[in-house]
Design goal:
There is one protein chain. This protein has 2 helices and 8 strands. It is of the alpha+beta class. The strands form 2 sheets. Strands 1-2-3-4 form a 4-stranded antiparallel sheet, with no helix packed on it. A 4-stranded mixed sheet has the order 5-8-7-6. The protein is globular, with a radius of gyration of 18 Å.
């Protein structure tokens, strides 16, 4: 009889931790990492990883193909050399020339980063990450003239 209350108490202690949306620390770059999909869009999968003070945000398309990833440090947002569209990652600190298709879809937002995806006619994706101080169009915040 003592085992049951002990098991119940153990389950009550463990369940809130397991039920929480804890961020993974491994799996960056994988098509289907063992992490919660936090995308705000049904067209994409977004996974968040945390190590120290750096948050990593990975964007996959609907088929699980890694499109790109960003590192959000306390000071900046940096595009990572991960995914099929690593050359098309744009941030406020790493702007790109204007994209062909300027319409975008927000796929993730938290207190420090907003991530948008814009499919291009070439089949590539422009993946943009901006901080909260970008109040306008993410294209404007991540673009420089050629």
């Amino acid at each position: 009889m003592r085992i049951r209350p002990l098991l119940l108490a153990t389950a009550l202690v463990v369940m809130p931790v397991a039920a929480g949306a804890q961020q993974a620390i491994t799996g960056l770059g994988q098509s289907w990492p063992n992490s919660t999909d936090v995308s705000s869009s049904p067209n994409y999968h977004v996974y968040v990883f945390q190590r120290g003070n750096t948050r990593y945000v990975q964007v996959n398309d609907a088929n699980g193909n890694v499109r790109g990833a960003f590192a959000r440090t306390p000071y900046s947002i940096i595009g990572l050399p991960v995914g099929a569209d690593a050359a098309n990652l744009a941030t406020q600190d790493e702007p790109l020339p204007p994209a062909t298709n300027t319409s975008s879809e927000k796929v993730y937002e938290d207190s420090g980063i907003k991530v948008f995806v814009s499919p291009q006619p070439s089949g590539a994706y422009r993946v943009m990450a901006v901080s909260g101080d970008c109040k306008g169009d993410p294209q404007e915040c991540t673009t420089h003239s050629p």
